[in-house]
Design a protein that fits this description.
With about 270 residues, the protein is an alpha/beta fold. It has a single domain, classed as Protein tyrosine phosphatase superfamily (Protein-Tyrosine Phosphatase, Chain A). The chain contains eleven helices and six strands. A six-stranded mixed sheet has the order 1-2-3-6-4-5. This is Tyrosine specific protein phosphatases domain-containing protein. One of its GO terms (molecular function) is phosphoprotein phosphatase activity.
């Protein structure tokens, strides 16, 4: 039975430790190795101290776009010596080389009008459309920015201490990268799916947080909790598509130059006692 290891700190609402998950071969993901979170901009000084001292965070894998970074500014962990930041956007069109300053550009997903899901999920057909949309959206990260996905996984495997992966809500981009990291070390699908869907417990609080942030407030005006909530079927569809198209996560990673040695590094990072 999966139980989320929530980390309750001032300034975040969707942070948890992936420690305790058991792989198919019976190994256990060690605590304080891989954390996942929503936006870190509001962390209090005490929360920053706890992450660095109690959890041993040495690396932050930031999956937000250049637009988000420009509109949000530096978070408090940026000022901490010894914490390395890795920025890997998952949108092809998101670049710091645009002629328009990032702070003046729209968020990439604001120009992606593929949603068409209505204001809420009300029937099985709409539920299925919701899950298909989001699973394809996550696959688009892999298709559009495989370099960023692999670089994010490499940052986790190479981190000296705990690595914390985050985006804005800590559920979509973060859920995709963390799910891949867990599959690299052979955590069973059902546990990966359960961890992914656990963020649904915090979506209302996430949306309240982000509505107070400059980068997200307007975009969230007409969004509902149902629209934004991850489901088990979304990740199940994603993993199923990777299995069908590439022979699984390992197969897809092999097409991107990920090697057996890289898998060994990830296993040592997450599983070694």
């Amino acid at each position: 039975m999966y139980q989320p290891q929530w980390i309750e700190l001032d300034g975040v609402v969707n942070m948890r430790d992936l420690g305790g998950l058991v792989t198919s071969s019976g190994d256990t993901v060690q605590p304080r190795r891989l954390l996942r979170s929503d936006n870190l901009q509001d962390l209090s000084p005490e929360a920053v101290e706890s992450l660095v001292t109690d959890y041993g965070v040495t690396d932050v894998v930031d999956l937000r776009t250049h637009v988000e970074l420009a509109k949000e500014g530096d978070g408090p962990l940026r000022a901490v010596a010894g914490v390395t930041h890795h920025h890997h956007t998952l949108y092809r069109e998101d670049t710091d080389e645009s002629g328009i300053p990032a702070a003046e550009r729209a968020l990439p997903w604001e120009t992606d009008e593929r949603r068409g899901l209505g204001k809420a999920r009300r029937d099985p057909d709409q539920d299925r459309a919701h899950d298909r949309f989001w699973s394809e959206h996550y696959l688009s990260y892999l298709a559009s920015r495989p370099d960023s996905v692999v670089a994010a996984l490499d940052a986790i495997a190479s981190s000296e201490g705990a690595a914390i992966v985050h985006c804005a809500a800590g559920k979509d981009r973060t859920g995709t990268v963390v799910g891949l990291a867990l599959k690299v070390v052979d955590v069973p699908d059902e546990l990966v799916i359960a961890d992914f869907a656990a963020s649904a417990q915090r979506v209302a609080a996430i949306m309240d947080r982000l509505r107070a942030r400059p980068a997200y407030a307007r975009n969230l005006e007409d969004k509902t909790v149902a629209q934004q909530s991850p489901t088990t079927d979304t990740m199940r569809l994603l993993l199923g598509a990777l299995e069908e198209r590439h022979g699984g996560v390992h197969g897809w990673l092999a097409t991107q130059g990920w090697t057996a040695a890289d898998t060994d590094r990830m296993r040592h990072k997450l599983l070694a006692g």
